[in-house]
Amino acid sequence: MFLFFHILYKFQYYIIRNFLFYRKALTFLWLILVFNMIVHTNIPYNSQVLKEDINSLKNKYSFIKVSTIGYSFLGKPLYCLTLGSGKKEVLYFGSIHANEWIVSPVLMKFIEDLSEAFSKNGKIYGYNAKEILEQATIYIVPMLNPDGVDLVTNFINQNSNPYKYARIISRQYPNIPFPAGWKANLNGVDLNLQFPAGWLRARQIKYNQGFVSSAPRDFVGYGPLTEVEALAIYNFTLSHNFYLTISYHTQGREIYWNFQNINPPRGYEIGQQFANASGYSLAQVPYNSSFAGYKDWFIQKYNRPRLYYWGRTWQQSASYLSV
What we know:
47% of the residues are buried. The chain is α/β, with parallel strands linked by helices. The protein starts with a helix and ends with a helix. The chain has 11 helices and 10 strands. The radius of gyration is 24 Å and the shape is globular. It has helices at 2-36, 47-60, 103-119, 129-135, 146-152, 161-171, 199-208, 228-238, 267-278, 294-302, 315-321, and strands at residues 65-71, 77-84, 88-94, 123-124, 127-128, 136-141, 242-248, 254-256, 281-283, 306-309. The protein has a single domain (37-323), classed as Zn peptidases (Aminopeptidase, 3-Layer(aba) Sandwich). The strands form 2 sheets. The protein has an 8-stranded mixed sheet with strand order 1-2-6-3-7-10-8-9, sandwiched between helices.
């Protein structure tokens, strides 16, 4: 009997000891994975975090090209990261609206995942990363409105003049929470109402809604392309031959793909692929929001697919680029 209990004790001790060992080992491996990651998606993502992540990604993946397409109202760089060397040029950008800053780490995480797969000759969402970057050149502007993002994420000092200026603007619109409801740049202009595609109609609609001067959202400015951020992405687009452009937003669970009666070739087909992958709806833009956006201008000028994507998924991006 003593021998039985002795063996049982030894067995329990072995199980506990090995359980603790494996738990520690798994914890250690998890920590390695976490600390090996560059882009973290569970923190407020401001312009400083973006800059640090870009530097880290560039140091780890030397094939990533980093440039600036311009500067913000407060003089912050508008970064562009480029991957690939293929003939098919595409553009992704995000955070044109300040309070939709979560799309910036999503874009950055995609860059990290794609770069890691490419460096190991591996796959991303089932598609060969090397083949994608041989067929396409991907330009990604992860944060088009860094000033506004820094305001919303509380990265701007509350005693600074930019913060005080934004606060003065916000007081004129007490029904819009501050700073959480801020969409505009730090000049109080909605950057996605700045493009020459029905701008006068957009102004009439927004003026009728009460947005007649600098505001946290929905002020179109005093003319198209008056804001440096909007002008930067406009000129950057003109300097390239983009086959497809996609902007990422965080509200609505919808995908917009056309402009008025202009239905670009393959636009609906590509939009439907994104809808199938994401579970979001392929929708018509509400009339009062259907003018002066970047999507509207790109489709009007080029008649090419342009998606205004209220969500996040990369599977369909990878599959489309690999075609």
